[in-house]
Write a structure and sequence with these properties.
This protein has 9 helices and 9 strands. By secondary structure, it is of the alpha+beta class. It folds into 2 domains: 104 residues, no CATH class; 139 residues.
Length: 256
């Protein structure tokens, strides 16, 4: 009848609800949450026409030693090797060394006990294009072959070499490292094409009426970064705006 009645999970469990708020992403919502007979094909087609944002590689690092003395801090580090803004939005195999995000999670965790060996964890994130991994996307992890393992090794080496340039003393304390490609992001988070920032930021996306909080299906709401802008602030505002679209009285709590 054109309205929400609940959610049916993969194991067949039915959850009755007259309102459903989807925070999994706009495209993921229309591709995975809707039944085939939703009756809103034009809306679905519009969302599917919007491109995906960037994806990323992550290099996980394990340290043994006094990482603070070697230069690690509780701050996030955004490292840009060039002021050319187009150049930094490239993947790890581009001629330009990648821009990187570096963080040391264990230093931020007050419950972390480094022990006598001073064990710590860190991570490096670098932007990527889905095209770098697309040829393996339809294969199961155990079926991607030696060329995929070689590809991962190249990515790991490229990121670690760049890390060494910024943190040479920290690099000497690394005892473990493992790289995750955009395929891991897609598999673990469910983001289409590993696009952890959701939909691409284009004029088409920003002007689209399809990304309103209240969808054409009565009782189905979109929230999160896709209805505002990528990242944590966009996701926060997406949640606030979605809440006020359901209950306008919420505005008084926001100073409106």
């Amino acid at each position: 009848n054109g309205r929400v009645v609940g959610v049916l999970t993969a194991d067949g469990t039915a959850i009755d609800a007259d309102k459903v708020i989807s925070d999994i992403g706009a495209r993921e919502t229309v591709d995975r949450l809707l039944p085939h007979d939703h009756g809103q094909q034009a809306w679905v087609d519009t969302i599917r026409s919007l491109g995906s944002n960037i994806c990323h590689f992550t290099l996980f690092l394990g340290f043994s030693g006094d990482i603070e003395a070697a230069g690690a801090t509780k701050s996030n580090h955004w490292l840009y090797p060039t002021g050319e803004t187009d150049a930094v939005w490239t993947d790890v195999f581009h001629d330009t060394p990648p821009a990187m995000f570096v963080s040391f999670a264990s230093l931020k965790d007050p419950a972390h006990d480094p022990g006598p060996d001073q064990k710590h964890a860190g991570e490096i994130i670098a932007w990527a294009h889905w095209s770098t991994v697309e040829r393996w996307a339809t294969l199961a992890p155990g079926e991607r072959g030696d060329d995929y393992q070689e590809f991962k090794q190249q990515a790991e080496s490229a990121l670690f070499e760049q890390f060494k340039k910024y943190f040479p003393r920290l690099a000497e304390l690394v005892v473990f490292r493992e790289v995750a490609t955009p395929l891991a992001t897609a598999a673990i988070t469910g983001h289409t094409k590993g696009a952890f920032y959701g939909l691409d930021v284009t004029p088409q996306r920003l002007m689209s009426d399809a990304l309103r909080m209240q969808t054409p299906i009565k009782g189905l709401y979109l929230t999160g970064q896709d209805v505002v802008s990528p990242g944590i602030p966009g996701a926060l505002w997406g949640g606030l705006l979605c809440a006020t679209s359901i209950d306008p009285k919420m505005l008084k709590h926001l100073g409106g």
